[in-house]
Amino acid sequence: MQGVFLMGLRVWMNGQRPGSAVHGNQGLSQRGYKKRLQAMLAVDDLVGNVVKTRHATGQLDNTYLVFSFDNGFHLGQHRLPSGKQTAYETDIKAPLVIRGPGVPAAQTRSELASNIDLAPTFAAEAATPRPRSTAAR
User: What is the pTM (predicted TM-score) of this model?
Assistant: First the structure.
């Protein structure tokens, strides 16, 4: 079960190198690159352990796993300084990945969603009242 969601990540990452087109930054140091890969592999291990444990306890079929991302941290792409202050298409089209009961496997949707949509969606799925603090409907 290890690596269920980031399947093949280790193989793919081994084929990349600092400064490659994947990263868009010729200045990313070998140490910085290695640290980023280690962080991603730690997430892969964590997700694999959660899935393995839920499966072993018979709870996987009643569990939603949700992965959302922010706009990331630019490392010099578009010839701009590093940071989060750019407004490019790659910044606003962040993936939202959901796995759980009733969620079709391997399906891609094009509808727009935002972080403010998550809490009311989770509340509706759990058949509980929408939190009053949420702005979305």
Answer: 0.64
